[in-house]
Amino acid sequence: MQDVSYLKCVQGLVNHQNYHQSSQAPHSAGDLALETLAKILKMNPISRKQFSQIFRDMFPHKKRPIEMLLAMTRQSLKLTLRCKEVTKTVVEVVVQCLLSIDSEVAA
């Protein structure tokens, strides 16, 4: 069985210091999409409630490939750097997923 413990899952995630040291201009289509989503969420407070439900529903299941979970986690944390208002939702969902993976591995 592959080691997918909590520490393994958060390995290499983006941090605030690295983000602010680099250029904040979008470098890829994914970055551009994150920037656009962050602007929408900031301009329209009602969209944050909808985002919360959609994000919870669409976050990959713990049985999905680890690469998919890591990619979604990285992108989600990047979004929180651009839009602080969704940080609580993102962290809650990511931690719930990581804990469910960790508890399954420990069992």
Describe the overall structure.
This protein has 107 residues and is mainly alpha-helical. It is built from six helices and no strands. Helix 3 crosses helix 5 (66-82). The chain is globular and about 40 Å long. The model is unreliable at 1-23 (pLDDT under 50).
In short:
This protein is mainly α and 107 residues long. It is built from six helices and no strands.
Main sheet: strands, sense, barrel: none
Helical segment tally? 6
Number of domains: 1
Strand content: under 5%
Distance between the termini: 12 Å
Q: What structural class do the secondary elements suggest?
A: mainly alpha
The total count of strands amounts to 0
The Cα radius of gyration reads 14 Å
Order of helices and strands: HHHHHH
Shape category:
globular
Mean pLDDT: 77
Q: Identify low-pLDDT runs.
A: 1-23
Task: State the helicity in percent bands.
Answer: over 70%
